[in-house]
Amino acid sequence: MLYRTAGQFKTSYTADQALFPVRQDAVLLGVILLFAYVIFPLTASEFAYQTLLIPILIYALAAMGLNILTGYAGQLSLGTGAFMGVGAYACYKLITIFPWMNPVVAILLSGVFSAGVGVVFGIPSLRIKGFYLAIATLAAQFFLVWLFEKWAWLYNYNASGAIQVPNLEMFGVYVSGPQAGSTTQYYLVLGIVTLMTLLCINLTRGNLGRTWKATRDMDIAAELIGINLMKSKLIAFAVSSYVVGVAGALYVFMWKGAAEPNVFDIPLSFQVLFIAIIGGLGSILGNYLGAILIVGLPVVLNLVPAAVGLSISSATVEHLNVMIVGGLIIFFLIVEPHGLAQLWRLIREKLIIWPFPH
Amino acid sequence: MKDAQGYVTADGRQIGGVLMEMKNITLRFGGVVAINDISFDIREGEIRAIIGPNGAGKSSMLNIISGFYTPTEGEVFYKGEIRPQMKPYEVARMGVARTFQNIALFEGMTVLDNVMTGRLTHMNAGLFSQALWWGRARDEEMDNREHVERVIDFLEIQNIRKTPVGRLPYGLKKRVELARALAAEPSLLLLDEPMAGMNVEEKEDMSRFILDVNDEFGTTIALIEHDMGVVMDLSDRVVVMDYGKKIGDGTPDEVRGNQAVIDAYLGVAH
């Protein structure tokens, strides 16, 4: 009843292709944005910021980048962690070389570097696809992490080999480094992620999105209807790596505060890939749902035993965590291989016709 | 009846000059000769059929026209000029669109999006314009949507335009594929077995659409088909292939009376 679309007529193609052709979708999004921009910042604790809100946004952004490449353009990648690393290191170098640079500008610029690296490592995709391409991107993963370790210039030759985020100011407020407040950082992350999401939605619903999906669904037919596959794939790598790189910069500058090379190793790539798969490949919304599940679940699992008065050692909780998350991943993949986004799509379809069955 | 400037068909349509000419085309895969020294032309506005028994090399010929294969020997002339070696997408951008023997739609997309991909060659807004959904990208999207809707209207698939292609039955998929090819406003439309696997009613519909396309838009059509009834009724001229060689070329009536063609189809005692 709430979601009924009857009576919402479109009289122009512009209206039909608007971002939210169904009024309820716009209302729902408005409510979510209200929560994200007003209610969460008013109520969130430091713990909530650091374990839920900020990481969910950053992981969702990273997954969105990967989703453009894997979900939309159909090119499987296992190098996401390394591309995030490129973004983080690029941002670190930009900030240390140009200390006067606005941190937000530096973060947005650092994606350009990872886009460049992504295109280089995307070149094999012109000849190979599927699992073989995944192996090629795995090479990027190992090579780049090795580079982060060995190329001392990247971390300014400091003894620890890690990058440490300095205190950065923007309009007189600390936005990163030890002195920055979580609320400020949250708003910055939220702003950037909102902007990126909007851009990604536009790209994927327009001509480029169709080009990518055509490349994904049937590359031979795509070429025969006039798609330059090389261009389509390399643009996908560039855009994807850009978004992933920005996510990497946010990861270090707005959340972790410091990072060693091995942070960007393969577990990070897998985590982002899981978010994208569980959330739903070929969907923008799915990245958020996946990130909420993957980031939120361990937190909930940690809190539940204490809340109900069970005293379980933290090591046991950790193990339980891995087992439950693993089990859930398998469960979701069996129940809904197209991810949480598809689940929402089905629910929405049912809601539109509810209470009638057809 | 036939001259350099074209000819008039039995039903009174004026056929124009040569649009595409295949000159001494040979295609070899290693030792296998798929196409052996074949020449023929396709004239503007005509419906040209390529027929022959299985394995005759028809699809290979279509693949050469659409640039998917490069002929081992021989030349392709397009609009009077020799066509250099090209990638398939470049050929598509020159105005050659096609459908496939085994439906090659983009299953994960809706009918509308599939047909919109046919307009790719007409859209060239930049990355930033598209990301912002502003200016050129938006205008292009709307203009091309309008065009696509005309095609959707023409092929009577309005009611399924927002349906994911994966959910459609076979016959409709074939029609959507035709819509995608038509959306490109091709000067040459290649149809690879447009009636394969259809029942009589669906074949009648498809034949009607093919004739209407040719009639309404003046599109030149080259098609491969196994249903002889359909071929003889639809086409203006027919090329007959067998074992990679051309064994007949002419109007349906001429071809029907050709002894080599009859032998190829019915077999001869050795």
Automatic annotation (TrEMBL), chain A:
Compartment(s) where it occurs, according to its Swiss-Prot or TrEMBL record: Cell membrane
GO cellular component: plasma membrane
CDD domains for this protein: TM_PBP1_LivM_like (cd06581)
Source organism of the structure: Roseivivax halotolerans
Protein name, entry field: Branched-chain amino acid transport system permease protein
Highest taxon listed in the record's lineage: Bacteria
Keyword Membrane: yes
Membrane topology listed for this record: Multi-pass membrane protein
Keyword annotations of the record: Cell membrane, Membrane, Transmembrane, Transmembrane helix
PANTHER family: ABC TRANSPORTER PERMEASE PROTEIN (PTHR30482:SF5), HIGH-AFFINITY BRANCHED-CHAIN AMINO ACID TRANSPORT SYSTEM PERMEASE (PTHR30482)
From TrEMBL, chain B:
SUPFAM superfamilies listed in its UniProt record: P-loop containing nucleoside triphosphate hydrolases
Domain of life (superkingdom): Bacteria
Keyword Amino-acid biosynthesis recorded: no
Native species: Roseivivax halotolerans
Record Pfam families: ABC_tran, BCA_ABC_TP_C
All residue ranges annotated as the ABC transporter domain in the record: 20-268
Gene Ontology CC annotations of this record: plasma membrane
Entry keyword set: ATP-binding, Nucleotide-binding, Transport
SMART domains referenced in this protein's UniProt entry, alphabetically: AAA
Gene3D superfamilies per the UniProt record, alphabetical: P-loop containing nucleotide triphosphate hydrolases (3.40.50.300)
A GO term for molecular function: ATP hydrolysis activity
Name under which the protein is recorded: Branched-chain amino acid transport system ATP-binding protein
PANTHER family for this protein: ABC TRANSPORTER ATP-BINDING PROTEIN (PTHR45772:SF1), CONSERVED COMPONENT OF ABC TRANSPORTER FOR NATURAL AMINO ACIDS-RELATED (PTHR45772)
Taxonomy of the source species: Bacteria, Pseudomonadati, Pseudomonadota, Alphaproteobacteria, Rhodobacterales
CDD domains attached to this UniProt entry: ABC_Mj1267_LivG_branched
